[in-house]
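EI: anyone free to look at a 173-residue chain?
SC: sure, send it
EI:
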Amino acid sequence: MTTRDNQRQRLYDAENMVRDVLDSLAQADVPTFDFYGSSLLVPLERKFGDLESIQRYIDAVLALNWVRDTWPERTVLPVRVRKRKGKVHAHYEPLTRTLAVPDHTNSRGWAMREIVILHELAHHLDMSAEHHGPVFASTFLHLVREVMGPEVGLLLTDSFTRHGVAFGVLATV
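SC: here you go
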Protein backbone atom coordinates (compact mmCIF):
# COMPACT_ATOMS: atom_id res chain seq x y z
CA MET A 1 0.00 0.00 0.00
CA THR A 2 1.39 3.41 -0.90
CA THR A 3 1.15 6.43 1.33
CA ARG A 4 -0.65 9.46 -0.09
CA ASP A 5 1.71 12.41 -0.63
CA ASN A 6 -0.68 14.95 0.89
CA GLN A 7 1.52 18.02 1.07
CA ARG A 8 3.67 17.56 -2.01
CA GLN A 9 2.22 20.51 -3.95
CA ARG A 10 2.28 22.80 -0.90
CA LEU A 11 5.93 21.94 -0.32
CA TYR A 12 6.80 22.54 -3.99
CA ASP A 13 4.98 25.88 -3.90
CA ALA A 14 6.87 26.89 -0.75
CA GLU A 15 10.20 25.88 -2.28
CA ASN A 16 9.39 27.73 -5.51
CA MET A 17 8.67 30.89 -3.55
CA VAL A 18 12.13 30.69 -1.95
CA ARG A 19 13.72 29.93 -5.34
CA ASP A 20 12.11 33.08 -6.74
CA VAL A 21 13.54 35.13 -3.87
CA LEU A 22 16.99 33.59 -4.39
CA ASP A 23 16.79 34.32 -8.12
CA SER A 24 15.94 37.97 -7.50
CA LEU A 25 18.70 38.31 -4.90
CA ALA A 26 21.24 36.87 -7.34
CA GLN A 27 20.50 39.84 -9.63
CA ALA A 28 20.89 42.44 -6.86
CA ASP A 29 24.05 44.42 -6.12
CA VAL A 30 23.68 43.50 -2.44
CA PRO A 31 21.63 40.36 -1.73
CA THR A 32 19.38 41.78 0.98
CA PHE A 33 15.75 40.88 1.53
CA ASP A 34 13.15 42.80 3.53
CA PHE A 35 11.75 40.25 5.96
CA TYR A 36 8.88 41.71 7.98
CA GLY A 37 10.73 45.01 8.42
CA SER A 38 14.18 43.52 9.00
CA SER A 39 16.84 43.50 6.32
CA LEU A 40 18.36 40.05 5.79
CA LEU A 41 21.70 39.66 4.04
CA VAL A 42 21.16 36.34 2.26
CA PRO A 43 24.07 34.17 1.08
CA LEU A 44 24.08 33.51 -2.65
CA GLU A 45 22.89 30.10 -3.78
CA ARG A 46 25.38 27.77 -5.43
CA LYS A 47 24.72 26.97 -9.08
CA PHE A 48 26.31 23.96 -10.75
CA GLY A 49 27.84 23.84 -14.22
CA ASP A 50 27.85 20.07 -14.68
CA LEU A 51 26.79 16.80 -13.08
CA GLU A 52 30.29 16.15 -11.75
CA SER A 53 30.16 19.32 -9.64
CA ILE A 54 26.80 18.18 -8.23
CA GLN A 55 28.36 14.82 -7.36
CA ARG A 56 31.24 16.53 -5.55
CA TYR A 57 28.78 18.76 -3.69
CA ILE A 58 26.63 15.80 -2.56
CA ASP A 59 29.72 13.88 -1.44
CA ALA A 60 30.89 16.93 0.54
CA VAL A 61 27.51 17.44 2.22
CA LEU A 62 27.27 13.75 3.17
CA ALA A 63 30.80 13.97 4.64
CA LEU A 64 29.94 16.85 6.99
CA ASN A 65 30.28 15.74 10.62
CA TRP A 66 26.83 16.97 11.67
CA VAL A 67 25.21 15.22 8.69
CA ARG A 68 27.02 11.95 9.50
CA ASP A 69 26.02 12.29 13.16
CA THR A 70 22.37 13.04 12.34
CA TRP A 71 21.86 10.30 9.72
CA PRO A 72 24.68 7.75 10.34
CA GLU A 73 23.02 4.85 8.52
CA ARG A 74 22.20 6.92 5.43
CA THR A 75 25.47 8.82 4.99
CA VAL A 76 27.52 5.64 4.58
CA LEU A 77 25.45 4.82 1.49
CA PRO A 78 26.85 6.63 -1.54
CA VAL A 79 24.53 8.69 -3.71
CA ARG A 80 25.10 8.74 -7.46
CA VAL A 81 24.15 11.59 -9.80
CA ARG A 82 22.98 10.95 -13.35
CA LYS A 83 21.55 12.99 -16.19
CA ARG A 84 17.77 12.85 -16.40
CA LYS A 85 16.33 12.70 -19.89
CA GLY A 86 13.23 14.76 -19.07
CA LYS A 87 13.55 18.44 -18.31
CA VAL A 88 10.59 19.04 -16.01
CA HIS A 89 11.65 17.36 -12.76
CA ALA A 90 14.66 16.24 -10.79
CA HIS A 91 14.06 13.15 -8.69
CA TYR A 92 15.65 10.67 -6.29
CA GLU A 93 15.64 6.94 -7.05
CA PRO A 94 15.80 5.13 -3.69
CA LEU A 95 16.55 1.63 -4.98
CA THR A 96 19.76 2.75 -6.66
CA ARG A 97 20.38 5.81 -4.44
CA THR A 98 20.55 7.95 -7.57
CA LEU A 99 19.75 11.60 -8.00
CA ALA A 100 18.52 12.23 -11.55
CA VAL A 101 18.96 15.83 -12.67
CA PRO A 102 18.12 17.50 -15.98
CA ASP A 103 21.27 19.28 -17.11
CA HIS A 104 21.77 22.52 -19.03
CA THR A 105 21.41 20.90 -22.46
CA ASN A 106 17.73 20.09 -21.98
CA SER A 107 16.49 22.61 -19.46
CA ARG A 108 18.62 25.75 -19.12
CA GLY A 109 19.83 24.30 -15.83
CA TRP A 110 16.87 25.14 -13.58
CA ALA A 111 17.57 22.03 -11.49
CA MET A 112 21.32 22.55 -11.25
CA ARG A 113 21.04 24.72 -8.17
CA GLU A 114 21.68 24.18 -4.50
CA ILE A 115 18.13 24.23 -3.13
CA VAL A 116 16.94 21.62 -5.67
CA ILE A 117 19.90 19.34 -4.95
CA LEU A 118 19.31 19.61 -1.18
CA HIS A 119 15.63 18.76 -1.75
CA GLU A 120 16.61 15.58 -3.58
CA LEU A 121 19.32 14.75 -1.03
CA ALA A 122 16.71 15.07 1.73
CA HIS A 123 14.85 12.19 0.05
CA HIS A 124 17.96 10.05 0.52
CA LEU A 125 18.26 10.97 4.20
CA ASP A 126 14.54 10.72 5.07
CA MET A 127 13.37 7.15 5.49
CA SER A 128 9.75 7.93 6.42
CA ALA A 129 6.96 6.57 4.24
CA GLU A 130 5.51 9.98 3.37
CA HIS A 131 7.66 11.35 0.52
CA HIS A 132 7.00 15.04 1.25
CA GLY A 133 5.57 14.67 4.75
CA PRO A 134 6.57 16.43 7.96
CA VAL A 135 9.76 14.40 8.49
CA PHE A 136 10.91 15.05 4.93
CA ALA A 137 10.09 18.76 5.23
CA SER A 138 12.09 18.94 8.47
CA THR A 139 15.03 17.09 6.90
CA PHE A 140 15.01 19.43 3.90
CA LEU A 141 14.72 22.50 6.12
CA HIS A 142 17.57 21.31 8.35
CA LEU A 143 19.83 20.81 5.31
CA VAL A 144 18.93 24.22 3.87
CA ARG A 145 19.46 26.02 7.18
CA GLU A 146 22.80 24.39 7.94
CA VAL A 147 24.27 24.23 4.41
CA MET A 148 22.84 27.30 2.67
CA GLY A 149 22.68 29.42 5.82
CA PRO A 150 20.24 30.36 8.57
CA GLU A 151 18.85 33.24 6.51
CA VAL A 152 17.75 30.90 3.73
CA GLY A 153 16.45 28.51 6.39
CA LEU A 154 14.36 31.36 7.80
CA LEU A 155 12.93 32.13 4.35
CA LEU A 156 12.04 28.45 3.85
CA THR A 157 10.51 28.18 7.34
CA ASP A 158 8.35 31.22 6.63
CA SER A 159 7.36 29.87 3.20
CA PHE A 160 6.47 26.46 4.69
CA THR A 161 4.26 28.22 7.23
CA ARG A 162 2.59 30.43 4.60
CA HIS A 163 1.85 27.39 2.41
CA GLY A 164 0.63 25.12 5.22
CA VAL A 165 3.53 22.67 5.04
CA ALA A 166 3.70 20.51 8.16
CA PHE A 167 7.24 20.22 9.57
CA GLY A 168 9.03 20.13 12.87
CA VAL A 169 9.84 16.49 13.52
CA LEU A 170 13.40 15.65 12.50
CA ALA A 171 13.77 11.87 12.50
CA THR A 172 17.29 10.57 12.83
CA VAL A 173 18.42 7.01 12.41
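EI: The first strand starts at residue 32 and ends at 35.
SC: 👍
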